[in-house]
Amino acid sequence: KCFNKIKNMENKECPHVETIWDIDPNFESPDTESRLWENSEPPSRPFKPELKKIHPNILHAIGMTPVVKLNKIPQSLGIKCDMYAKCEFLNPGGSVKDRIGYRMVLDAEEKGLVQEGSTIIEPTSGNTGIGVALACAVKGYKCIIVMAEKNSNEKVDTLKILGAEIIRTPTEAGYLSPKGIFAVSQELQKKIPNSVIMGQYSNPSNWLAHKEGTGSELLWQFDNDIDMVVAGAGTGGTVTGIGKALKENCPKCKIVSFDPEGSILARPEPMNKSNTTFFEVEGIGYDFIPTVLKHDYVDKWYKSNDLDAFPMSRRLIAEEGLLCGGSSGAAMTIALKAAKELKEGDKCVVILPDGIRNYMTKFVSDHWMQVRGFLPLENKCDFWWWNNYANEVPTADLIPIQSTQTIQEATDALTSQGVDQLPVVSNEGHLLGLVTMENLITKLCEGATNGNSIMTVLQKTFSKVKENTNLSLVSCILQKEHFVVVTGVAPVPCSKPQEKLLKIITRAEFLNYITNSNHDNDKNKL
Predict the structure, then answer these.
(1) Which stretches make up the CBS domain (predicted)?
(2) Domain ranges of the chain
(3) What are the start-end ranges of the E strands in 241-371?
(4) Among the options 52, 72, 97, 380, which is catalytic?
(5) Rounded CA gap, 306 and 369, in Å?
(6) Region of poorest pLDDT, from 454-463, 487-496, 501-510
(7) What digits encode the pLDDT tens for the residues 301-337?
(8) Of 66, 110, 210, 446, which is the most exposed, with the fewest CB atoms less than 10 Å away?
(9) CA-to-CA distance for 198 and 187, rounded, in angstroms?
(10) Strand (E) positions, 132-241?
């Protein structure tokens, strides 16, 4: 494994690694060889099918989620079998990950790893963090969640109000990067006394929560008679635990799993070849194989994609009344494909992992869907500029900021040029990101800067279009955002072409273009 050899490697041997950092000898890699802890720790917590009238606290309400028959969507596609949804989004924290968050804390307490005054750290895509933070809030532990910038602001706000401290890492940082969630979590654990990393990627409590919880519930709900279960793979704990429970008690059941294009979890490995380097769906898919994922329990793998997943999530909400999240849409698209091989009377269950709350500003929003090409943009008013190109809009000439400059120099440059944003470029002129007034104020007021380098406040996430992008898309972006970056390709000899900044279109410049151009016959259409 790349991670385990890192101390003796040069960077060129391990492309995910930016620099070598000091590895704690007790730090367990998230991608060690998959294994199951059959006869050791943690202790078993057998399933008890009971519905209590009153719970001592909210943690006891985790699990026993309902199964709901799916009707309109399967019927519209001619599916012959009966399809059901296991509504994991109805857990108290809003996702299937409540199960493992609570279970990991319980098992850590029993083993003496966590006690009064402990700090619990967890690297996560958000949902496990919410489950852990929920347990910490009830039990009184301090909680620190390390998560990538990609994950939704709704997750961040939920974690904050639960009392968790949030550490964000760059989305592009690989799992072995010193800037990634694992290395950052490790560094925090070194510095904070009486702290422990739950480590969902290698923690046996993960898959056991699903073997003794989710999987056992399904067996009870269907009287040990299920023909297919479909569950997505992130850490792999859900499909591993469910798969083990079903294989042991309902051998005929086929276990189907999937991960997004751009992830490498599926088998056989050639399935993972893809030009996709980024996917919007959250909570499933990784660039490494987590320890808790046991491929032996999966009968068939599929690959999902954003283009199918998000519209299906919206269909589940609109047609079945299930207020679920983006990965639930991905699961449903795969379940519909896999269920085609089942006959009338067979039972197919799809696990819907999380709910709508985390995505109110994402796929729930028409604007978000349109900007990303998941919903069409229609020229209902016959605007003259609709199909014009981004490079046709006149913009101010901007003097970029060099990556070596300071925050003070960047502030002076913004002020002197009279703009709210400026590009930051490398010595070779390649676009690295932006510095904006909004981001500067936020970082400085939150004390989130590390030193005086402009790179500590660099904004890497912003809307970006090619020079031949239609203004229909530019107009859609500018309805919600203050500017759009326009880029082209700068050829580099003997190297991969680099992205080149061409211009930044602001709202004012766009408005000036569509209202002041010489189109006398189209004034009523702007």
Answers:
(1) 394-453
(2) 59-93+206-352, 96-204, 377-516
(3) 254-260, 300-304, 347-352
(4) 97
(5) 10
(6) 487-496
(7) 999 999 999 999 999 999 999 999 999 999 999 999 9
(8) 446
(9) 14
(10) 142-148, 165-169, 195-197, 228-232
CATH number of 96-204: 3.40.50.1100
Does a cis peptide bond (omega within 30 degrees of 0) precede residue 74? no
What does the block give as tokens for 218? 């399904």
Angle at the Cα of 140 from the Cα atoms of 135 and 141, rounded to 5 degrees: 75
139 is catalytic: no
SS3 state at 218 = helix
Q: Is the peptide bond before 394 cis (omega within 30 degrees of 0)?
A: no
- The CA-to-CA distance between both ends of the chain, in Å, stands at 59
The residues facing 119 across adjacent strands are 142, 195
Q: How far, rounded to the nearest angstrom, does the alpha carbon of residue 156 sit from its chain's CA centroid?
A: 12
Three-class secondary structure assignment of 502-523: EEEEEHHHHHHHHHHCCCHHHH
Please determine whether the domains at 59-93+206-352 and 96-204 fall in the same fold group of CATH: yes
Q: What is the CATH number of domain 377-516?
A: 3.10.580.10
CB within 8 A of 42, min separation 6: which ones? 107, 110, 111, 204, 205, 208
Q: How long, in residues, is the chain? A: 526
Question: In 3-state terms, what secondary structure has residue 61?
Answer: helix
Residues 365, 359: Cα–Cα separation, whole Å? 8
Residue 122 in contact with residue 184, Cβ under 8 Å?
Answer: no
Contacts of 179 (CB under 8 A, 6+ apart): 18, 169, 170, 173
In terms of Cα–Cα distance, which of 413, 420, 418, 389 is closest to 486? 389
Q: How far apart are CA 385 and CA 402, in angstroms?
A: 35
Q: Two tokens at 155? A: 């997750």
Q: How far apart are CA 336 and CA 78, in angstroms?
A: 10
Strands 431-436 and 464-466: unpaired
pLDDT digits (tens, 9 = 90+) for 359-390: 999 999 999 999 999 999 999 999 999 999 99
CA-based torsion, 199, 170, 174, 96: positive or negative: positive
CATH for 59-93+206-352 is 3.40.50.1100
Query: What residue type is 349 in one-letter code?
Result: V
